[in-house]
Amino acid sequence: DADQRKGYLQSIFPGPTQFALDAFEAMRDSWVQTAKNAVRANLTSLAVPKHQIQRVFLQGISPDAAKAVRDAGLELADSSDTADVVFDDVPHSGDKQSNQHPLNSIFFSTENTVMAFQGVVGAQEWLRPGYHLKTQINEFIGAALMDGSSWWMLSNDQTIPNVRPQTIITSNWAAAVRHADVGYTSALKCVPSAFSPDKIHFAEKIVLLTPDNGLYVWNKDTWIYYYLIQLSDNKPDPYQILTDEHNVPESAFVELLAAHFGDSVFGSFCKQAEIIISDVIRLMLGIDSSDGKNFGVFSFRFAFTKGDDDDIKPCLQQVRPVSVTERLAIDAELVPSIVATLAGNADANLWRQLKNE
User: Fold this and answer.
1) pTM higher than 0.85 for the full model?
2) For residues 243 and 247, which has the higher predicted lDDT (pLDDT)?
């Protein structure tokens, strides 16, 4: 494409930039219109009718996780074909439930999620904008030029066996564009934490979407992660590869926020995040409805940004399907509580239902 070629050459041989600004403004206008025309489905407020679920299939779980499943009165099936509920991407036959909700096809990669949000959600105050580095080069350059202090998180969705792709952040838009040549397909706007300039913090909420469009948030924990940012002269280095993410206990993080912004800020942040979760799911169900059989388990990650009143507000950074088997290592109650919710016996202390907002 000649226009995209022009944008790529701009990253190597800088020249006039009005074409990129025009492309960005046109895209921004289209996002505003998309948001105005967005259709929101309704979430069910009814409890799932109670029924029996006895046998579940999980591939490769640990002995501790298997014990937790059995202690909950469930049986571990020897194969997916003999189970009532099948977890994760495991082939199966027959009429059974699995966490292969149709929305998985939207959120399976950063690239796909970025494009879906552009086409379905549009311009939202709570959404961190993102661009496709192969087909939206000009629009991305225009966005970066409009906000010269912006930072971008580059994602590589090309999978190589046993190799974890590196995550890169940069304030240099030309460097971001040139990374498209080595498999980086998406650039998401990001900012250091409003209270820790040497870190990027994220809050993660786990969400369960039942086949009848019931939406539940994991009520037991909010997981807090951060990346360390390298600083030079008290400023972030303009290009850096992020190291492994670190975990912060929720209680310690709540104390940190309270010291900066007051005791109520984390509770307010989580409430706003849940409103955003509800809105995202309703918007996506408006174009890709449930199949009435499968459920979804999703991770929503939010960045911490400054609000208008010098408080903290959530901004959606990432949505992806959850591998339930992997999460069992974090909390053994996860699978039994999902099965109980699907069977109409939800424990509100673990899964709290969200309503239409």
Assistant:
1) yes
2) 247
